[in-house]
Amino acid sequence: MLLNKFIKPSLFVQLCRRNIQSKAQKRPPLAFAFDIDGVIMRGPEPLPKARNALRILDGNNSLNAKIPYILLTNGGGQTEFDRAKKLSSRLDTQISPSQIIQAHTVLKDYVDAYADKTVLCLGGVGDTMRLVAESYGFHKAYTTTDVLAWNSSIWPFIHVTESDLASAKPIDFSRTPISAVFVFHDPRNWGIDVQIICDVLQSGGLLGGPWVEPRTQDVELVFCNPDLLWKSDFSRPRLGQGAFKASFQAVYSMLTGSEYPYTQFGKPTQSTYDYARRVLHDLLDRSYGPGSGTHPRMYMIGDNPESDIAGANAAGWSSVLVHTGVYDPTTGPPRHVPTHEAEDVEEAVVWAIEREREMVRQIEEEEN
């Protein structure tokens, strides 16, 4: 403030404008979204080049800029805070919960409509999905375990343990209609969850109630992950939530003669990529200030052509397919063609940054 006394007002304004312009020039021309499994991690361990890739984004790059990124996964089963904490430890870098978009993160947009309505949250282990739902703001979230604790005869092929009963949230489902079924994460016991969803939808949300003509206005059904396959630390891809959805719809169709309408989130859906774009823009604005209408090029780095690449291409993003996960280049070209292919995530990051740097150089040359 003392310096301002010795600067003419007009000169002070000019210096402020130059300072603002200088900050605007540092705003990077790109932002990244990374899949996790098969790109950054394999099972519980980081892939060999993952740490280097994230260090490059932290400023050690030819743009001399800290480049924002998110981790966009069709996985889930825990809070974004817990996942960020685990990944930060494994990858030796600080990752914020705001950088984590799991398959079910987009359900935060449903809180206003269902905060005080009874919802069934499927998938995951024990009561973890209820805890995730409550962290989002759903005040009346219940799980498969709660249903079994209420009436174990709904699925008589499993023994309800004392630990299950201890973690259950007491409720009389015969008097409490369920307004929505959210398949947050991959169900652990498909039989139980298929049975319960069918019961809920055919009774208008009231378990044990008389069968009624299923109507979507009675119960909303949402799946968060369309992946048929996903890459774990096993040698071959595993069946995912997409396979569970197909199993449920097959059974429901045999029972009713029709498919129940549902909402699908997760890659490659447009809604998930729109949500991710919004988060990335917020990260950019927090780091560099409002973008004055400028939009960085979005890069999706993924290992699954059917989710990562298909979704990025449809959203108008640039896409890079790595060879460290689901996609096996020896089986032939991918059905969804990426902007570029790379052996690993570090190579993908370097290629994207150099591509953008060259574009910036060409624009500057044309302007001069």
TrEMBL record:
A Gene Ontology term for the protein's cellular component: mitochondrion
Transmembrane segments annotated in the record for this chain: none
InterPro entries referenced in this protein's UniProt entry, alphabetically: CDP-alcohol_PTase-I (IPR050324), HAD-like_sf (IPR036412), HAD-SF_hydro_IIA (IPR006357), HAD-SF_hydro_IIA_CECR5 (IPR006353), HAD_sf (IPR023214)
BP GO annotations: glycerophospholipid biosynthetic process
UniProt xrefs under SUPFAM superfamilies: HAD-like
Name used for this protein in its record: HAD-like domain-containing protein
